[in-house]
């Protein structure tokens, strides 16, 4: 697919409306635009996470996680491309089952090396782990927005499942980036007033 963008400033959205992929004009707070905007925000947060994980030296090979994060960013664009075209129908995500398989395989690869959970985990630890937890929460919000949209205009159910799996991935990635859970910050119940 070739994409060409000749202009960034179009003035088409100056009055609070924007275009969908099929050319239809909608309000910028439309459920579909809200879902797309949250996907975009998730993608941006993942970009910050990638930057936090990328080795500083040009000749250093990128870790497997950085390459996988780029694939996730492309996956989010694929999902957005489907969502921005309301006429695509509820079975438009043909790559969905394969994406689910790849995500589940990667989750298991990371999880297998991690210490068992004995408590809830607080977001934090290394800067990259904290970014992974932030990505997890933004993906969860994108999932909630997609559920709202799905209720109003059915989407391919694999989109919802894929977002659910992505939040699982970012949880285990956060643990991976905290020395596979050894440097996780555990929740301590009732410790605020100690």
Structural commentary:
By secondary structure, the chain is mainly alpha-helical. The chain has a single domain (26-55, 62-181), classed as Cobalamin adenosyltransferase-like (Hypothetical Protein Ta1238, Chain: A). Helix content is 54%, strand content 5%. It has five helices and four strands, in the order E-E-H-H-H-E-H-H-E. The chain has helices at residues 31-53, 64-83, 96-111, 127-152, 157-176, and strands spanning 17-19, 25-27, 121-122, 185-186. The strands form two sheets. The protein has a two-stranded antiparallel sheet. It has a two-stranded antiparallel ribbon with strand order 3-4. A hairpin with a 5-residue loop joins strand 1 and strand 2 (25-27). Helix 1 packs antiparallel against helix 4 (127-152). It starts with 16 loop residues before the first strand and ends in an 8-residue tail after the last strand. The mean pLDDT is 87.
Low-confidence stretches: none
Q: Which term fits the overall shape?
A: globular
Total count of helical runs of at least 4 residues: 5
**Total beta strands:** 4
CATH topology: Hypothetical Protein Ta1238, Chain: A
Give the integer mean of the pLDDT values: 87
Class from secondary-structure proportions: mainly alpha
Which CATH-level-2 architecture? Up-down Bundle
Strand content: 5-15%
Strand order of the largest sheet: 1-2
Separation of the first and last Cα atoms: 59 Å
Q: What is the C-alpha radius of gyration, as a whole number of Å?
A: 19 Å
Helicity range of the residues? Answer: 40-55%
In N-to-C order, the SSE pattern is EEHHHEHHE
How many discrete structural domains?
1
CATH superfamily: Cobalamin adenosyltransferase-like
Q: How many strands, which pairing sense, and closed or not: the largest β-sheet?
A: 2 strands, antiparallel
């Amino acid at each position: 697919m070739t994409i060409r963008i000749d202009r960034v400033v179009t003035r088409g959205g100056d009055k609070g409306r924007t275009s969908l992929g099929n050319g239809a004009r909608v309000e910028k707070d439309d459920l579909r635009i809200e879902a797309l905007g949250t996907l975009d925000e998730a993608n941006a947060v993942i970009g910050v996470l990638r930057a936090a994980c990328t080795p500083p030296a040009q000749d250093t090979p990128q870790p497997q996680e950085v390459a996988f994060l780029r694939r996730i960013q492309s996956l989010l664009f694929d999902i957005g491309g489907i969502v921005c075209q309301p006429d695509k129908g509820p079975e438009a995500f043909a790559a969905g089952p394969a994406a689910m398989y790849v995500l589940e395989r990667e989750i298991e690869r990371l999880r297998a090396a991690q210490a068992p959970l004995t408590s809830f985990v607080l977001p934090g630890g290394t800067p990259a782990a904290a970014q992974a937890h932030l990505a997890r929460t933004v993906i969860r919000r994108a999932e909630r927005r997609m559920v709202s949209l799905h209720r109003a205009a059915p989407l391919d159910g694999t989109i919802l499942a894929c977002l659910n799996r992505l939040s699982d991935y970012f949880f285990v990635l956060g643990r991976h980036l905290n020395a596979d859970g050894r440097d996780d910050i555990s929740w301590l119940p009732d410790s605020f007033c100690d």
